[in-house]
């Protein structure tokens, strides 16, 4: 370990990836703070997910970067951070955008993922680990810096008091109390191939309410409202709809109050896992070995089809059987078996 790493007092992290990736990075951030208890540790994140990181107790400052900014706006943003005179820069993302931003921020010493020529702007280029979960990949980053003895406390997410109070009121407004069994359903997905069928969610929602006597709450952002409305129109029971009605902080607070959270492989399922709620994640094209909800209380359902995981945003075989062939009964059986 060189002196730049060993003696750093001002550290900047950059990761502009998505919601789930930021959740996966929380053990990295916690362990980094343990290695540098007195340092200033700041982070640049995707502005879409700034709120979810704002309560992180291990960071001093969090800077929101908007991916829609022009080159001039991006340059001005990075130049402002350059005035902080960081001694160590850590690039967890490793694409061209983050490589350029970190170069302009100009820490004394920079470490991160390179490849495809991006390592030319790093003082120390690391190789991305392909066969580990993303949590373990990020911790390997710290190991490559020369640190040892990481905790095994897993992912975490702090819930703001205001968001918690808002969601308590939300549940009361829907005549729910602590005696009700709450099951969250998240229907969206960043890729079309990550989304389970509308008919499947409708059937599952009815079965959960009729057979398990649970209260179903639909989660999701504004972009999921139309899809959830279609699903609810196919149901015979009446679920609670939180879709498009919560901030990211409130989503975390509401997920924490659920007894179970069911979703495809997308950000909210990792939020639920981070606040301690058991999850069932439906996996299609993505690799559960790398992206499953992290921890022991979580289950993965995948149907073993030979062509998965393919990693494609649209099914190259035009059938999407990896998710469409998963049935509501299969999910229900999994819940019953693990009661």
TrEMBL record:
EC number: 2.4.99.24
Reaction equation(s) it catalyzes: an L-alpha-D-Hep-(1->5)-[alpha-Kdo-(2->4)]-alpha-Kdo-(2->6)-lipid A + ADP-L-glycero-beta-D-manno-heptose = an L-alpha-D-Hep-(1->3)-L-alpha-D-Hep-(1->5)-[alpha-Kdo-(2->4)]-alpha-Kdo-(2->6)-lipid A + ADP + H(+)
InterPro entries assigned: Glyco_trans_9 (IPR002201), LPS_LOS_Heptosyltrfase (IPR051199), RfaF (IPR011910)
Keyword check for Membrane: yes
CDD domains in the record: GT9_LPS_heptosyltransferase
Pfam families xref list: Glyco_transf_9 (PF01075)
Family of this protein: Belongs to the glycosyltransferase 9 family.
Record's protein name: lipopolysaccharide heptosyltransferase II
Organism: Orenia marismortui
Lineage: Bacteria, Bacillati, Bacillota, Clostridia, Halanaerobiales
């Amino acid at each position: 370990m060189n002196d730049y790493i060993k003696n750093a007092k001002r550290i900047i992290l950059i990761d502009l990836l998505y919601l789930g990736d930021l959740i996966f990075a929380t053990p990295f951030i916690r362990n980094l703070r343990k290695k540098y208890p007195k340092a200033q540790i700041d982070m640049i994140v995707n502005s879409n997910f700034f709120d979810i990181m704002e309560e992180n107790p291990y960071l001093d400052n969090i800077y929101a970067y908007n991916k829609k900014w022009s080159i001039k706006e991006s340059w001005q943003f990075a130049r402002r951070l350059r005035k902080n005179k960081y001694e160590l820069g850590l690039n967890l993302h490793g694409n061209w955008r983050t490589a350029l931003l970190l170069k302009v921020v100009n820490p004394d010493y920079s470490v991160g993922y390179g490849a495809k020529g991006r390592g030319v702007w790093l003082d120390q280029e690391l190789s991305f680990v392909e066969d580990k979960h993303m949590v373990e990949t990020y911790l390997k980053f710290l190991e490559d810096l020369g640190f040892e003895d990481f905790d095994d406390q897993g992912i975490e997410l702090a819930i703001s008091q205001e968001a918690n109070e808002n969601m308590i009121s939300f549940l009361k407004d829907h005549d729910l109390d602590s005696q009700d069994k709450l099951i969250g359903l998240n229907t969206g997905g960043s890729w079309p191939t990550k989304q389970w069928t509308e008919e499947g969610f409708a059937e599952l929602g009815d079965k959960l309410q009729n057979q398990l006597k649970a209260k179903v709450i639909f989660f999701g952002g504004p972009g999921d409202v139309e899809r959830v409305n279609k699903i609810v129109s196919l149901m015979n029971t009446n679920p609670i709809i939180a879709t498009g009605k919560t901030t990211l902080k409130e989503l975390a607070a509401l997920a924490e109050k659920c007894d179970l959270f069911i979703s495809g492989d997308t950000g909210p399922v990792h939020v639920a896992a981070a606040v301690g709620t058991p999850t069932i994640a439906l996996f299609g094209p993505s690799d559960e070995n790398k992206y499953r909800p992290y921890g022991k209380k979580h289950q993965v359902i995948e149907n073993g089809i030979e062509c998965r995981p393919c990693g494609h945003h649209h099914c190259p075989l035009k059938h999407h059987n990896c998710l469409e062939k998963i049935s509501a009964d299969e999910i229900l059986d999994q819940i019953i078996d693990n009661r």
